[in-house]
């Protein structure tokens, strides 16, 4: 499979979920920026958004009911020492990984430690569904290898990584709708689901909706349709469309947070992988054209092959 022109791989036509779509090359500079965002979110998550996980260090071990993966891998019971070791090892590894050094070694360390942190978090009776896409992002980042902010190459490994995250983001919405129908049935859409949420967790920005009888039930139907239609996001190809998609999804989550104080922050971080971050490093207008541009003008040289693991960094 030949590589699309360097710098615009996202415009190559491909049917969603076909091999060509999964491995459509993506600029390594995009990965370099997103990797920093993803890894620096770890200390934010550990110390702010999931600071309550540390409290499990002081919970009697009898209350620990490990998730299936914890039982399968015989992960250690989260004693006081285990929780603190995982917490600080995770933060140190994530900060180090954000520098871009040893991307495979440090990347795998962050993924494994964060997975254990989530097992510790979710093995006491509550399992959140807003972290799967972020966990997948941490799992695929180490498979790409080195990537620099000014790297102008494209990589099929990077394409697979971003495709995997996008599919997981989509499935988070779609399976949420499926769960609503599985456990709540049509009563979820026709009942007082959002009304109850606003009564329990409403803010000054949402309490007024309780006085509009039709609004919250209508919002339930809109939410359900949006989640069931989420596979359509796989059809988005152009950079501009992806920016609008990210703005829409983040706007939806900001609206939910403003209304009932619930924010899927790790999921929002995963959504950022869709953005064309490589455009932050545009060449200056007065800069001399790169050598390969002059060569391309002189003769139609073959397109540069997508970067694969093991190639020397450019």
UniProtKB/TrEMBL annotation:
Q: Sorted alphabetically, which keywords does the UniProt record give? A: Membrane, Transmembrane, Transmembrane helix
Annotated region (Disordered), positions in chain: 287-314
Q: Which domain of life is it from?
A: Bacteria
- Where exactly are the transmembrane stretches of this chain? 32-53, 80-98, 105-125, 131-147, 159-179, 214-236, 243-265
List the biased-composition ranges (Low complexity).
287-307
**What is the designated name of this protein?**
HTTM domain-containing protein
């Amino acid at each position: 499979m030949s590589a699309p022109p360097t710098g615009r791989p996202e415009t190559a036509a491909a049917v969603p979920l076909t091999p060509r779509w999964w491995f459509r090359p993506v600029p390594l500079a995009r990965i370099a920026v997103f990797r920093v965002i993803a890894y620096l979110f770890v200390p934010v998550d550990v110390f702010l958004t999931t600071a309550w996980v540390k409290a499990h260090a002081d919970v009697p071990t009898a209350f620990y009911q490990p998730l299936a993966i914890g039982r399968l891998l015989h992960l250690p019971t989260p004693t006081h020492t285990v929780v603190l070791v995982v917490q600080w090892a995770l933060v140190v590894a994530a900060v180090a990984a954000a520098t871009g050094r040893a991307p495979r070694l440090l990347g795998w360390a962050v993924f494994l430690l964060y997975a254990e942190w989530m097992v510790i978090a979710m093995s006491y009776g509550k399992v959140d569904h807003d972290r799967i896409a972020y966990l997948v992002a941490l799992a695929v980042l180490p498979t790409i290898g080195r990537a620099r902010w000014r790297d102008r190459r494209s990589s099929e490994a990077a394409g697979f990584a971003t495709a995997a995250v996008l599919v997981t983001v989509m499935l988070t919405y779609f399976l949420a709708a499926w769960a609503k129908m599985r456990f709540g049935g049509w009563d979820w859409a026709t009942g007082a689901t959002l009304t109850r949420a606003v009564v329990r967790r409403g803010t000054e920005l949402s309490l007024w909706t309780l006085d509009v009888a039709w609004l919250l039930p209508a919002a339930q139907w809109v939410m359900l349709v949006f989640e069931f239609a989420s596979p359509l996001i796989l059809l988005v190809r152009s950079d501009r469309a992806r920016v609008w998609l990210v703005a829409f999804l983040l706007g939806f989550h900001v609206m939910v947070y403003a209304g009932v104080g619930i924010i899927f922050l790790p999921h929002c971080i995963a959504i950022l992988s869709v953005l064309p971050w490589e455009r932050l490093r545009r060449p200056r207008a007065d800069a001399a054209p790169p050598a390969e541009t002059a060569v391309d003008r002189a003769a139609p040289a073959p397109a540069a092959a997508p970067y694969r693991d093991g190639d020397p960094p450019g």
